[in-house]
Amino acid sequence: MTRLRGHEDAWATWRGAMRGGRMHHAWILAGRRGLGKAQFAYRAASELVAEDGHEQLPATGHPDILGLTPLAATEDEEKKRLEGKAFLAKRNISVEQIRQMQRRLTTRPTMGARRAIVIDAADDLEKSAFNALLKSLEEPPQGTFFLLIAHQAGRLPATIRSRCRILRFADLPDELIDGILVEAAPDSSNEERRAARMAANGSPGAALAFLDRGLGNVQHLFERLAGEGDADLALRGQLAGEIGPRPDREKIAAVLEAARMVLVRALPDAEPGRQRRIVAAHGKVSTLIGQAPVYNFDPGILMLEIGGLLASTADPRDAAH
């Protein structure tokens, strides 16, 4: 795990609330995926439950820090998780997980006066789980604090948002992301890190995912598609070859987000006609991002579609549409 960097404003707000003596019982940590919100949440939880005069224990395995994430999808995937291997998780945090957490809250904290519940991510709660969680937010047990990680805070029910204090996380600057990439991947080249930064546009987690999967050439093709068009489909053919025949969901998610960020970066400097095309393409790519966790895309067809959307934003004299 890389060292947590940035987010000084969030830390100042959090630690100021702790010093104030009237700590709000529920917080939403809001911001794009990959900004380090989970690392922040567990470090903040560790500070919260620490007792004066006692050594501050790490959050992992701490009896008074309870983390809720989607469970492994199957028994075989659970075995992978226990072995420390990559595993496929369910799409949602279930209502039963919330109820199990609530049963824990009927007892006192183990080591001190405070307990922290980290939900990663609250976006992934089942509808019935939201309703169950609401009961705990309305009547929190003494000394219990909730940290709800949200990649899209607007998707949370208003009843949940109204009972939480929102702590917002901003995108990180390129120079900070580059430092993270150098630390995490010291053998990466300047060009590989540039491609990862461009794809991530402020999200160190997205940059690391992009770099880990060797998608630098994909970023280069995306930039060419948006800038030159693709009249003979050659670039789209190269794109399909780069992705391969059986990409996993994480790789598809990284590719889709990179395509979206190419459009975001291109928008401010585009002339009005091209801006309209970029906005239209961005909407369609965003729809694909929303479908990615659920749909089983054919990789070749998906790359043709993404490439076509990027090419559609190029100068009409060069685009293949």
Automatic annotation (TrEMBL):
SUPFAM superfamilies according to UniProt: P-loop containing nucleoside triphosphate hydrolases (SSF52540)
Entry protein name: DNA polymerase III subunit delta
Q: Which residues form the signal peptide?
A: none
Q: Which organism is it from?
A: Novosphingobium tardum
Alphabetical list of InterPro entries matching this protein = DNA_Rep/Repair_Clamp_Loader, P-loop_NTPase
**Origin: domain of life:** Bacteria
